[in-house]
Write a structure and sequence with these properties.
The protein is an alpha+beta fold and about 300 residues long. Helices cover about 35% and strands about 20% of the residues. The protein is built from nine helices and nine strands. A five-stranded antiparallel sheet has the order 6-5-9-8-7. It binds zinc ion. Zinc ion binds next to helix 3, strand 4 and helix 4.
Amino acid sequence: MSELKKPMAEANRVSSMLNLVLGTDRFPVKVNEVALEYSRQCFADSPVDKIQGEDLDGFEGMLAANKARSKWLIVYNSSISSAGRKRFTVAHEFGHYLLHRHQQDRFECGDDDIETGDGNERDIEIDADLFASTLLMPLDDFRRQVNGQPVSFDLLGHCADRYGVSLTAAALRWTEIADKRAILVASRDDHMLWAKSNHAAFKSGAYFATRKRTIEMPRGALAYSDNCSAASESQTTRAQAWFPREPLSMPLTEMTKVAAQYDYTLTLLLMPDAEWRQPQHDEEEPEEDTFDRFIRNGQHPVRK
Ligand SMILES: [Zn+2]
């Protein structure tokens, strides 16, 4: 738990300062200015000196020190066209700067990092992601935005606009504060690209091991082929349609949205809390967090 707290604590420290200076209605976070100014004030002998776009072959972002380690450079891939992804990438690199710069003097973040973190070690990429989403979408403000409102992709779109992040990043953030089981699935051509369960869903066994095997979407899913005629729709169905081990009476609400910008469809699945704990006899290893960086960025991970 303490390892989890550090990225969040660092991000909250920055947020508190921004609240003091700018007030609480200050979004989206001007992450470039924040990284430059905050590091200059707090770490004057080795600040983030420059943030720039470059043609990074195969990398999404980079953090690098000069030889004397007296200044740091943040680079984002200049081919990133989405402002939300750019913002998330810079926030991620700023996270490496605050959390990990004493361990390394160069961080290259991209597709190759996906397969890391298979043991109990905490992965620094997960830390940097957690930092970035906490900085860009502070939970107190996020809760105020969604408080008491039924979740919908319209509401999540409002959050994405407010924080200047991708719809996917906002939807993932929402699942973290949901008071029920929530699973976000990205699909293309009737197959899952990735899926991410919130803690409650994961603990009850409601998750998809998309890294282990190819998983087809259920035939009845809104996102399956032509079932979904509009860009955004919802339906209530039986949880068993998605999770065969759920009891027959368990309802599931399904919402879907074509994320045209990323060439995939997002499906949000909501279920009441499980009344029992699913015994985990499966050979499938639980899958969690490893794809976060890419998913939050609004990217889909490259499969190997
Ligand atoms: Zn990284």
